[in-house]
Design brief:
about 140 residues, mainly alpha, two-stranded antiparallel sheet, 8 helices, globular
Amino acid sequence: GTPEAREFPALLGEVLEGAPRGSWLVRNLVTVLERHLMPASAGPARVMSLWLTWLCWAKEQLAGTPHGALDRLNSSSFVRALVLSVVKQEPEALLSFCQLYFGGGAGECEPPAEVLQTLAFATPLAERLFPTLVGFMRGPA
């Protein structure tokens, strides 16, 4: 049968081929994003946001686990491609992106320096993020 929700952390912590299942899950989610969702960034409005939300959840399940699953997630090429894809989406995708990199999880509140440098110098994130946040702070028109 289907496992209960309370069993997921134990399942994701199980080690397969030297890495926890959660690490495999993060890698697979990144691969789907890279190969299918980011190149076709004009897909259904909520798809990117939903996948990023799942990726945030999977990342949080890895808290305190030593692994290399986040290496691809934090690579400058992935971050750059993801930002370029997300800025073409609905504002929810942009907020999901911020949650992924700034929302904590995996025992960290600040992304690695490589991610910050990429965001600051190689992407149009600030150009799109601040007007989006202003819109959310003002509320519905």
